[in-house]
Amino acid sequence: MKKIILSLVALTVLAAATLPAEELVPLKPKLPAPAFIGTPKDIPAGSNIEPPSTKPRPP
What we know:
Elements: H1 2-17
């Protein structure tokens, strides 16, 4: 069983290696524009935003 699998793998590698480079074409994917820009610089003040802590961070 192992010999059969090994021979199939060898044939696949050999077939892929003999493929001429002329038949290969570069892929040019059309990517969408980025939708996530990042964290806004000026965060509006609101009731759900905590003020910065004045205490040092615990070790």
